[in-house]
Design a protein that fits this description.
Layout (H helix, E strand, L loop, with lengths): L18 H31 L5 E2 L5 E4 L7 E6 L2 E7 L6 E3 L1 H6 L6 E7 L2 E15 L2 E10 L8 E4 L1 H4 L2 E6 L2 E6 L2
Length: 180
């Protein structure tokens, strides 16, 4: 009787991944994992920092809700160009990015140097035909250009707009009431 014994198959060098390919694959998976985590965080922040729509109450009062970051942001318009205003009760005037100023037709103006909480910056003082939030409008508003927001549609809503309204902050809401 003859016994045929075949040795177990030997692993060939081609079937076993090399340490370099294992390390490369691990690195790629690690990077993909963190890329997905960062993308999810970015999308979550965009959602939470998105400005709430201003709500117009029956008496004409506009209610703005505080954002997750503690600031009051509201959609509005400068010369009918859409903006996202950061309501800044400490700012003297409405201030817009250069890109927004160009889109809104805010040309010329007087060159000035602004002193801000973030230091000094160059800009211009121009006049917008209209600045609007919901039903609240102010015409012939002096606007500073050169603001550096996170987006070209970002703007500051300062006292030269707010002074035309009674401003009340309570808890997580700000109310802007037309003066009678």
């Amino acid at each position: 009787m003859r016994l045929n014994v075949t040795p177990p198959p030997q692993s060939s060098p081609e079937s076993e991944p090399s340490p370099q390919s294992v390390a490369r694959r691990s690195t790629v998976l690690f990077l993909l994992f963190w890329l997905v985590v960062m993308a999810a965080m970015y999308l979550a922040m965009q959602h939470f920092l998105k400005p709430a729509q201003a709500k117009v109450l029956a008496d004409g009062t506009v209610r703005i809700e505080r954002g997750m970051d503690g600031h009051f942001r509201v959609k509005g318009y400068v010369n009918e160009q859409p903006v996202t205003f950061l309501v800044d009760t400490g700012a003297t005037s409405v201030s817009v990015t250069d890109a927004l100023a160009e889109r809104a037709g805010l040309e010329g103006g007087e060159k000035v140097r602004f002193r801000t909480a973030n230091g000094e910056r160059d800009g211009r003082i121009v006049t917008a035909d209209e600045v609007r939030i919901a039903s609240l409008r102010v015409r012939d508003v002096r606007v500073g250009t050169g603001y550096t927001g996170d987006d070209s549609e970002d703007a500051l809503l300062g006292q030269n707009f707010l002074r035309f309204f009674d401003v009340q902050m309570s808890g997580d809401e700000m109310l802007l009431r037309p003066r009678k």
